[in-house]
Amino acid sequence: MMLQSAPSVSSEALLDVDNLVVEYPVGAKIVHAVSGVSLQIARGETLGLVGESGCGKSTLGRAVLQLRRPTAGRVLFDGHDLTAMQGDALRLMRRRVQLIFQDPIASLNPRRKIGDIVAEPLVIAGVKDPEKRKQLVHEVLTAVGLDPTLVVGRLPHEFSGGQCQRICIARALILNPEFIVCDEPVSALDVSIRAQILNLLEEMKGRFGLTLLFIAHDLAVVKAVSDRVAVMYLGRLCEVGPSEQLFARPAHPYTALLIEAIPVPDPDVRPTETVPVGEPPSPIAPPSGCRFRTRCPRADQRCSDEMPELRVVAPGQFVACHHPLI
Amino acid sequence: MTGNTLLSVEDVTVDLPTPRGNLRAVDHVDLTVGAGRTLGIVGESGCGKTMLSRAILQLLPKKAKLSGRVMFDGQDLVQLAPEKLRKLRGRSLAVVFQDPMTSLNPVLTIGTQLIETLQEHLELDDATAKKRSVELLAAVGIPAPEQRLAQYPHQLSGGMRQRVAIAIALSCEPKLLIADEPTTALDVTIQAQILDLLAREQRRRHMAMIIITHDLGVVAGRTDEVAVMYAGRVVERAPTPALFKKMRMPYTEALLAALPKLDAAPHTPLPAISGRPPDPTRPLQGCSFSPRCRYAVARCQSEKPPLEAAETSAHQFACFHPIKTHADADA
Fold first, then answer.
1. Residue A216 in domain
2. ipTM
3. CA count, 13 A, side-chain hemisphere, A167
4. Which of B190, B215, B265 has its CB closest to that of A279?
5. What is the residue range of A59's domain?
6. Handedness of CA B242, B244, B250, B251 (dihedral sign)
7. Is residue A176 in a domain?
8. pTM above 0.80?
């Protein structure tokens, strides 16, 4: 059975990304950042998107929100094609979607007070009553675990990384969005703070009925919050499946390799030395056929001749590989 | 292990003057590393692990005040003349930083930097130094090493740059290599490659190593001993298997528990550590972890627990109410 896209667990997809392509020029060359990615996210679902630096996962996240216009493909959000929208229509739609970045300190204007930073989306959305804005800011700051009276009058540099990420989350939540792209939201945080922020995101998701695209390079972090996981390599999806199933029985050699490479905090687990060879090739000149073939122990002639399409290997699990592990 | 102790950090304290007052970055730390052994130093940002490594290397900021002794290979580095220190660093005492661009010069070729290091410390002629450079690059897994000599750091990927930094650090056969978050900036598959490379070279050269990291996963399978730091102090120290089998210090336990586990089901809430580390310019009277510790009692707030030995002298921890082990429960 051959399939172009991986269907979601539920029939109602809030987000439907169809054959998305993002390419941009660097000098005389073209970077193939995202090459024909299709995925769906059901309402209320968290889809984790993992991959190493340069695999195109952040570009994909931005292209979904139209912060970078895709070269080709469609992004249906609640039935509306965002790629076809312009100007006011797109701005209105953007109130329903938000983005949280990796570096929380750099995401906050250092010269503005926290109260103003968190209220800004309301100002842009045209909430004119300052009292109303103040009330909403207090509510959302309380929701993310900050004391509004102690926070609103202060500047970002007075807060730690973890607290700044709480502020960013508050700003993302204030317009009551339906969908949030979280781009490496905990990568810059210490272990003890990271757990706090992951728990907060989970809590907020439940409380505000959010749908999340959770982008990260850390598989354990992604598994902790995701219903399903998509693995990306050099601009293409290798594998999509329910979290538990994908980690227990990876079908793509790259997924298996990523899992194997994670350092386990247990001295009885000796690090395997069957580690991946080499480094990812450049997205300027991606390999023909399967993009992972240059590092893959299973690659043969077919892998360089023919690009593997996503196909089903187990219930809900899809792999793009000619020689899958299952 | 006293017979072959290579490095002994004795009662080292580092103070940094700041506009907000004195910042005690390292607070009375004692550590030893035996020849050929690996010590992992684990802690979160601001715990003092990097300042401690800089104290060992004598690379502290100028305004920093250091007290204590750093005995390395029979001499106290704190008292050593700058000229002798320079000869030592790069030769028998080498370092690899998190960001390889910290140690690589962006305007010199890889070859120039390797050959320069080799000729600075070992009396090699140009041809021998070049030959040795190619061998070193090959040893750290750099493809086409001969061509790389003519390249500049910016022409290499992050992983390749870190390999070059490791090649330079290994070039003069150091007795001790300090790796300060050597893989934090790298992707997970590249991280595994670099950690394997360090382990392999260490075995081959019988070199001692200190791995500084925030990741308990990195130290678990790759060190002989682990020291956990919190707010400038070593709060627990043990042979690696003992530490992971029976953690005594609540902070170590909490740090491990807060890590997302691959074998946990999705949406399992993580046992987060509430609050955050204390302001290092406002030291607490008692245990620095007590405000965040679920076992803390009044005494923990008023008195600083000393780092003391547990059942075995090798396992030390600084806590009045350590986590009970099975042996304690039976007693």
1. yes
2. 0.84
3. 34
4. B190
5. 1-96+208-262+274-326
6. positive
7. no
8. yes
CB contacts under 8 A, B 238-297 vs A, are 240-241, 244, 254-256, 258-262, 264-274, 276, 292
CATH code of the domain covering residue A70: 3.40.50.300
Judge whether A243 is closer than 8 Å to chain B, CB to CB. yes
The pLDDT score that the predictor gives to residue B312 is 76
Subunit contact A223:B258, Cβ cutoff 8 A:
no
Domain membership flag for residue A130: no
Give the CA angle between residues A241, A242, A247 to the nearest 5°: 85
Q: Which CATH number is associated with domain B2-108+172-259+268-330?
A: 3.40.50.300
How many C-beta atoms lie closer than 10 Å to residue B281's C-beta? Answer: 13
Residue in chain B lying closest to A276 (CA): B189
Q: What is the pLDDT of residues B236-261, one digit of tens each?
A: 999 999 999 989 999 999 999 999 98
H helices present in B62-187, as ranges? 82-88, 110-121, 126-139, 145-148, 158-170
Q: Quick check: is A258 in a domain?
A: yes
Q: How far apart are the first and last CA of chain B?
A: 30
Total tally of structural domains belonging to chain A: 1
Cross-chain Cβ contact B258/A276 below 8 Å: no
Return residues 157-176 of A near B (CB < 8 Å): 160, 162
Yes or no, beta carbons of A52 and B255 under 8 Å apart: no
> From the list A198, A221, A265, which residue is nearest B217 (CB)?
A265
Q: What does pLDDT average to in each consecutive run of 10 residues of chain A (326 residues)?
A: 43 91 92 96 97 92 95 96 94 92 91 96 94 96 94 93 94 96 92 92 95 94 96 97 96 93 84 66 92 93 97 97 96
Q: Where are the domains of chain B?
A: 2-108+172-259+268-330
Q: Cβ contacts (< 8 Å) between A218 and chain B: which residues?
A: 188, 260
Instruction: Give the integer Cα–Cα distance in Å for A302 and B38.
Output: 45
CB contact under 8 A, B188 and A217: yes
